Amino acid sequence: MFHLYSNSKECPRYNxxxxxxxxxxxxxxxxxxxxxxxxxxxxxxxxxSKSKTLFRLVSPSESGIxxxxxxxxxxxxxxxxxxxLYNGGGSAIGDLDNDxxxxxxxxxTISGDxxxxxxxxxxxxxxxxxxxxxxRGGLKTGVTMVDINNDxxxxxxxxxxxxxxxxxxxxxxxxxxxxxxxFEERAAEYGLNDNGNSIHAGFFDYDMDGDLxxxxxxxxxxxxTYKQLFAGISNPSDKYSDKLYRNDDGxxxxxxxxxxxxxxxxxxxxxxxDINNDxKTDVYVANDFQIPDYFYVNQGNGTFADQMxxxxxxxxxxxxxxxxxxxNNDxxxxLFIVEMLAADNKRKKTNMAxxxxxxxWKHVDAGFHYQYMRNALQLNNGNGTFxxxxxxAGIRNxxxxxxxxxxDLDNDxxKDIIVxxxxxxxxxxxxxxxxxSDIAASKxxxxxxxxxxxxxxxxxxxxxxxxxxxxxxxxxxxxDWGFNFSGYSNGAALGDLDADGDLxxxxxxxxxxxxxYENTTSDNHNNSYIRIKFEGPTKNINGLGTKVTIHTxxxxxxxxxx
Length: 562
Known about the structure:
CATH superfamily: YVTN repeat-like/Quinoprotein amine dehydrogenase
Radius of gyration: 22 Å
CATH architecture: 7 Propeller
Number of strands: 37
Number of domains: 1
Number of helices: 12
Structural class: mainly beta
Strand order of the largest sheet: 3-34-33-32
């Protein structure tokens, strides 16, 4: 069951959709935003207040959101101790107190997490300590919001990873909403205190029993020899595998092995949807390094089958993130997976991994799927197969990318794309590697991190916003839309923060204040929108997995609520 709320008596077209899994409202919007040039400084909102850009970057002094993902690197805590230290933190948006205004949560990789209460008019208050969220360490990664106990209040699930000796700091955290914006950490009670190297978590009903189960992406250690790699593939460790937890009356049971998803990949991106449109929810995992992505097709009997090679022509090599949506309005779900191919020729040459045809075919001969170092936009052909059209669409290379998100940002009926971008240090820069190698050789040994850091290059990179131009093409509107902050951006979340019918954005940055973008589309007063609030079954009261299809005279528009 779902309720429709509209600001228009006639709603001829479905034009936009809130895609974040942490919200319980869909917003379907109409009409176009305007465009002009914007600054990329987070403190420049005053200068932008009268601008015509689609997005206005709200300053921390105005929003009250002062969170910054800080990192103090030492010889004990640095990239060479943990390769994913620079991957950054996550973001989540959800209405935690049911007042119609969604709250914002940021994870701090090493620094503390922050929870902000939405007070309206894009003004927020830091309630972290009062809410019972602060004070827990570890290396935090992704975050999601879900009503895990179906009491009508969204809860918060935080993934943790890392190299700390205290295994308790690796356990994921589950903050149960007590009401009045108070939370209690109870992951162990629910069986969700997983202590592997968790990156992301998604909740969905994989076994179609009416309640929400949990998928968690994980990863093994780094810098593995080929002997270690193939040994891990042959006999994957449960600790470092992705995990599937089945919900048995509120207790989450690890069923990864019997479900067929015990694996050995570095899963950085997670997409959950009924990708093949057979009524059962599937899983796509974007894997970093040598292991190809996984496409786990739900078999309907409690198991999954990896059909990556049968369904996709190839996949990215260093896959970082993924999103799933119907971007061309044909009723079929497509996928966008981002990699780390640079946009300019210099960075391509200095940061690109070496091309090694022998190694490529060694992987293929070992049973791996074809992998290429660029983004992939996988167009659903409707027959169980996909075609990569990223090059044709104009979105093949967005540099060191993290969070790709499909959403109709300008309310024209077509889903656009944002991509966050940046890496704290260019650890793959060839000049840096050659220089430090020579220095180490001259000293007759290895260098400390502090010695290496003196030679490292840090290059702030701009985020991307692409307007869906139709015809399978995307136009780069980052500058025109004001979504052009340059820095080291990672997790992003979308939601209607000011309840005006368009999608605002928050972005988690290393070192700089988090970006809070106000979408100004509704300012032209020409757009119409529909809010849809789902009422699901008693064990999935927000209706995760619900599909919405709107038919018009010339097209259909479709979205799945995940």
